[in-house]
Amino acid sequence: MEPVHIVGAGLAGSEAAWQIARAGVPVVLHEMRPTVETFAHRTGDCAEMVCSNSFRSDDDVMNAVGLLHWEMRAAGGLIMQTADRHRLPAGGALAVDRDAFSAAVTAALQAEPLIDIRPGEITKLPSDGNWIVATGPLTSDALAGAIREVTGTDALAFFDAIAPIVHADTIDMSIAWEQSRYDKGETEAEQKAYINCPMTKPEYEAFIDALLAADKAEFHEGETAGYFDGCLPIEVMAERGRETLRHGPMKPVGLTNAHKPQEKAYAVVQLRRDNSLGTLYNIVGFQTKMKYGAQTQVFRMIPGLQDASFARLGGIHRNSFLNSPTLLDDHMRLRPRPNLRFAGQVTGVEGYVESAAMGLLAGRMAAAQAQGRDLPPPPFTTAMGALVNHITGGAEAKTFQPMNVNFGLFPPLEDARSGRRGRKDRYPAYTQRAKDDFTAWLAAQ
To answer: Fewest Cβ atoms closer than 10 Å to its Cβ: which of 26, 66, 154, 333?
Structure first.
């Protein structure tokens, strides 16, 4: 049996390789790192997480991301299995020790006899064979050029920003305190998964002034600032209005200052644990394109971080993706070259979970093709099906932008109440319908 070739060993490529091998089909997994480096990656490990260490909400009843977690677990997904083994306290979210997580994914793939991991950069798109391109937002210039040649169009682009990471022992806990918003979580560790730094109104105003005045990284020639709203740099949010951050990542709701319980903070900066040792914390929602020197000065204005030492400062990079509604069919194949499937963020999904889910789906479809079978996509009523439907035809091609999974992508329910009050009943109905339909889809294989 001819192997399936996968380009890119990120979350999507790693998940695709696992699914294909588990189906009994050989895989060749091509990864250019560490031979060819990127500015954002630190290692040559598979499934390295370069931005946040969170897979977001793990609530599979009231949250579409949590539902996607459920579907990936039901399908035997490597990414979810590994995340569960290396999870950190994070309230209702699924956060992981990023280094242990990627090392474990790498070890699992290396131990699978049907997977052949080959280092080196792929610079051309082959015209035959069974291939999955899962190169992610940092597709190399050479391969991006090859994609443009085949598609006859330029990939769209936006900018994805990286949040800074702080050494925990440099946070002043006489000012900051541990608490998850609304004390969410079943264990004490989950209820204290975040470190909170309070701000008074004068402190917040001074912080905004410094943020707006700070030196920013400049764009390269030909690049435009078409940001994805789910990952806006904090300075861009501040430019949209002085109160924007206070109603976004710095909102003070659901928190009580353990040092001054009677005093309500005007704004709160949250930090989330970034490794299992609890020695590193990332600043939640603080993606930035400020220059490094400016970052250090501005972030040390945050009460509790005045003496902070940074393990990593924020950054910004171009994130390229296909106009998938015009280029991909519902089996994620490139219309001009159907021997090629695309998966992960390069297809126009946003987020670790969504990227891995598209890898899972592409892998199963490629394995079915190798075995002479046709695997239809999951029903649109499922999280995975709704997402792939959106990127391969459900979205408006002229205005196509990266998308997280959300209930707005799902077919509407019959007899469901609308508005905020209706969510209590509507979201569980969405998730139960999805679980039933996804279970049936798996059983039919």
So the answer is: 154
